[in-house]
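Practice problem: Major Facilitator Superfamily
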Amino acid sequence: MAGLLQTSFILSYMVFAPLFGYLGDRYSRKLIMALGVALWSVTTLLGSFMNNFGWFVVFRALVGIGEASYSTIAPTIISDLFIKGVRSKMLAFFYFAIPVGSGLGYIVGSETAKALGSWQWALRVTPALGLVAVILLLVVLKDPERGASEGSGHLATTPWKEDLKDLGRNPSFILSSAGFTCVAFVAGALAWWGPKFIAMGIALQRDDGVQQNDVAYKFGLISMASGLLGVPAGSFLAQRLRHAFARIDPHICAGGLLLSAPMIFMALITAAYSDAVCYTFVFFGEFFLNLTWSIVADILLYVVLPTRRSTAEGVQLLVSHALGDAGSPYLIGVISDWLASVMKSSSVAVDVIATNSSKPLAAAVTSSVSQENALIEFRALQYALFTTCFVEILGGLFFLINALYIVKDRLKVERAVKTEVVFVHNSLQQSMRKLVTQLS
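Answer key — structure tokens:
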């Protein structure tokens, strides 16, 4: 049920992403984003006042609609303002906000809940920041022509059906989206279950207890630090090596996932023995995972035509979240619950002994059962989280295959844009000649 909260948010997010992609390729992107952030903020605030779990789930889903508008369209505006190396830097600056923002969410949320004595107040901080964002979007942001940075600002939009067909025939788009789906799966699972799992591991180490808010605070700091370092590091490596190695982008993404997998595995192993060692492995696991964020966005922008980029962003968000973090928190929870029930079924005899024994013996056995149950719950969640390591390896394979197609697909877009620019230039020249002839 806890995982369902995140799943409901991601489900609406992914379903509405293609719709905002369609609108973003055809209408005012600035206005769409402002309305989306406003919806995002209002529904977050209203959700904090819900006393019924069902209604709370509904408002979490509505928050996802607002976020879909922003996440789908914002990268395409960046692509129209900057080009090549500068665009990569700006995308890195934009995408490092995801892990850093998530980390700040843990920190601000846990501290606000602790200070005011209610977790609902953690959701009442966001709307004020959302209001600031809406004002900045409407007053400061300028919406450039689509393809303006590449000199193709006059490209005409094509029917949405044709856009989708073209994306379906684009190997680099398909494979990078598949790899990013694996990234989303792991990121969603770790963000949702990471603090709880570490808290369970620390509780097994000592008897003085542990506050999950404290674990969430530390987990947030680690997530923020890994994002601050990992996202720019991926972009920096790609920019420095791109001139010498044309296929470096998918190779870095593949390397990041394949290096992250053993780090996450070791974090899961060491949680019950040393929280400091576990936190260290979590940092490096998330650092290597974060190498991919801005690079995947850059790949999409240079293998897709400017007039189809919002649609491509929407489709990629739909696929990556549908098969990634929309289901991973819930799936991990289901696997963990099932494993726990299987493990506990072998301990039924102990419960029977405790029930039929004398009071002192029953108390001792009950205490033993309680400790055993805690260990079972920990092991069940640990085994469930091991699936993230296998998913990371699968994602690395997708990116390695992507490297076989990346150069051809990039050149195809560059030629199409160049041809269109030349066509527009020639058309303008012909129009000017006709005008001069008529005037003379």
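Discussion: The mean pLDDT is 81. Students who identified this feature from the tokens alone can consider the problem solved.
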